[in-house]
Amino acid sequence: MEKIMHDLRLSEIVAPFGVGAITDVSGQSLVAPDTSYWDKRVAQEVHCARLSETLGQARLFEAPTHAERAGKTTKSLEYWRFPAWRFCERCDRMTRFTGKHKGAWINECNHCGGALIPMRYVAVCKGGSHIQDISWPLWTHRGRGSDDPGSSPECSDATSLRFDRDRKAGEGLSALSVRCTACKRSRSLADLVEPGALKRDGMGCWGRQPWQEKSTTTCDFDLVAVPRAATGNYMAEQVSALDIPEELPASLATRDSIRSHHDFGRLTNLPDPSRVEMIASWIASDLGTTSEAVLAVAAEEADSSTPERAITVDLKAGEWAAFEKKMNRGGRDSAQGDFVVDSWPSETASSYEPLTAGHVSGIGQVRRVREVRALRGFRRYSPDAALIDADLGTNHQKDYPAIELFGEGVFLRFDESRLAAWEAREDVRARAEVLFARYRATPWAGRLEAPEPRYVALHTIAHLMIRRLAYDSGYAAASVRERIYANGDGIDRSAGILMYTAAGDAQGTLGGLVRLGAPDKLVPLFVAALGDGDYCSNDPVCREHASGVDSNLNLAACHGCVLISETSCESANRLLDRQLVLGGPKVRGLLQNVLDVTHLASRDHVQE
């Protein structure tokens, strides 16, 4: 295969046209190789210690860029042509070779000069996330139409294939066929999509990606023919982190204080369980924690079955701790750097508390935020398929494509005591258990957040807010993203949502979103967003329908009320339910009384 160079936007190198993705550029179908093919001398390294640590001390690289027209000496990334098989738009000849003109590769037919069009179908294995060309000569000369489909075909001519289109047969696959002019055999593409068709015709998975010269592993999964542009051919797995002053979460701070206590060393050397519990209670009393927490840390120290390793701080836990510090300080943020948040805790902005019924304990205007996104890998065909790493090289240290983005946002912190009391209700737990049962029955759902009541409720509120903010901020709804902080376990409890926009080369800090973060503007938008969610054009079907959509990982949610662009959602439009926010026949909603208070205030105003 030849190497191709074309211009793409910088942000597209991570998604949607990152490593392994099929990209259409100027009528040509290309695929991006992994980062082991990158020239790191011309790729700028992106620094984000928190994200690099999470990815196993990996390095992050931004694709090389240029400001002028590309030339032969312009530093760039390499792209491979895929699929290799194409057909001529004029004479219908099929070929997998490309000619040259004045030393440059051309996408033209060698016989008539017509443009070459990529074949519409490729082969993907069902579990290994591999993709390859369909062997069109083998497929055309075997299968139906021969006396013995399992025998070797008499004709194997690969230079006499034609891609025929019968316009009288309609628009389906039965109107498309591949014909051999040497032996006159013809086969309809309708045979291609039958179950087990490729296996029956003797095709197996090569166990590699198109840019790899040889297989790195054996793959026993069956092949299936899919459209070249099918969305399931590429499911990217991205990891993002906000570049913030790292704050130590409470759980890790407590763990460090327990380990540094002068009596902690005695716990691992005492055979008497009663004395262990007694010393643990002493340590817990000194540090203001529980004996269970002390014993848990001691158990980690005593476990020699696994090698000691550095504790990786959860990305969201560190971010929440940083937001908490900003919110508790209050007022205008005079800090310099890439994390600037003006905040109004409920104590300093009590005027908005009646409208939110006390559920919102703080509002923040995120005037500046830096986000780093990295492409960890991708899957093909199914969410259950194997994850292909974005770096398939042999080096011990991994290199991942990344991009840094600067933007703005608004932040809402919710009252922890009210939220904890609500999620402890029996009707709320019963409603969430419906999602939990489906979550446990879906193998790939473990990559999502657990559908705890607080996460589902805050996630749904974020979607309603993004849809409402799009009307007033000046940004497209697809450019506003979410980050949900909803941890109800342990001492690192969190309850907040961040709605922000960040881009490296298009929409950035224009001010339209952060302007709406002031309480006098954000609170009315918050109430309006809840009003939007109270009614749906698909009600009562949407509100009462329990089966949901998208692998049944939603409840009362649809495109008419809650769903947004999947690129804006951290869970790809899953784990949503309006009833957990606004209530239903059998469940009390988290913010059900907010609209009641608003309606009451509006009625009193009319009476006056």
Major sheet characteristics: 9 strands, mixed
Poorly predicted sequence stretches spanning 5 or more consecutive residues: 144-151, 303-313, 600-608
Percentage of residues in helical conformation: 25-40%
Give the overall silhouette: globular
What average pLDDT do the residues reach?
Answer: 80
For the record, give the distance between the C-alpha atoms at the N and C termini, rounded to a whole number: 78 Å
Structural class: alpha+beta
What is the count of β-strands? 24
Cα-atom radius of gyration = 29 Å
Number of helices: 14
Strand content: 15-25%
Describe the structure.
This protein has 608 residues and is an alpha+beta fold. It is built from 14 helices and 24 strands. It has helices at residues 49-54, 136-141, 197-200, 250-260, 273-287, 291-302, 315-329, 416-423, 426-441, 453-472, 519-534, 541-544, 579-582, 592-607, and strands spanning 3-4, 22-25, 28-31, 44-46, 59-62, 79-81, 86-88, 94-95, 100-101, 104-105, 116-118, 121-125, 131-132, 161-165, 176-180, 186-188, 223-227, 235-242, 339-345, 360-379, 388-389, 399-414, 481-487, 494-503. Strands 4, 5, 18, 19, 20, 21, 22, 23 and 24 form a 9-stranded mixed sheet that branches. Strands 1-6-3-2 form a 4-stranded antiparallel sheet, with no helix packed on it. It has a 3-stranded antiparallel sheet with strand order 8-7-11, with no helix packed on it. Strand 2 and strand 3 (28-31) form a beta hairpin. The radius of gyration is 29 Å and the shape is globular. The termini are far apart. The model is unreliable at 144-151, 303-313 and 600-608 (pLDDT under 50).
